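Project standup — Tuesday

K.O.: blocked on the structure for the chain from last sprint. Re-posting the sequence here as requested.
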Amino acid sequence: MYELAITVIGPDRTGIVADVSEALAAVGANLTDSTMTRLRGHFAMTLICTGPTESEATRALEPVATGGLLATVRRVEPEADSAAAGEPYLVSVHGADRLGIVAAVTRVVAAAGGNITDLTTRLTGPLYVLVAEVDVPAGAGDELAERLAVAAAELDVDVTLRRSDTEVL
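H.V.: unblocked you, prediction finished:
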C-alpha cells in the first residue's frame, strides 16, 4: 500500500472536492488527512491518501485537472509517530496589515522550539488576522508568550497565546 501527498490548486468552481474525491475513490484511495480552502477566488487542497500508486492517482486526476486546475501527486513515507511532540497552543494575531507579520511571528515560535501544525491568515479590509496551532516544548509556554509580546510591540499588532484544548477532530 502506498501513501501519497496530493495537491490541487487553481481557480475555484463548484464541485472540485467532489470531483477529486470521486476520482481518487475510483482507484481505491483512502483519504486519511486533508485540508481545503478558498483563497481570494482560488481553490487549494492538500491531502494524504493511502492505496494506489503515484501513477494510478495521477491518471485518475487527469480529467479533474482542467480549466486551470493543477493536480500534483507524490509518494511520501508514512509518519513514524503521530503523537504531538509538545504542548498544544493557539497563537492569534490581529492588527493592521503590514509586511513581515507571518515571518516575524513564525520565527519567534521556531526559535522557542515550537512546531506550527496549522496556520491560517486572512486580510479583511485593513485588518490582518493570523491564527496558528503550535506544539510547544513542555514548560516553554510562558517564555514563548514573552517573546511573542516583544514581537507584537515591534509589529504594532495584538498577539495572544493560549493553551489549546485536545484536538477533537
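K.O.: great, moving the ticket to review. The mean pLDDT is 93. The first strand starts at residue 2 and ends at 11.
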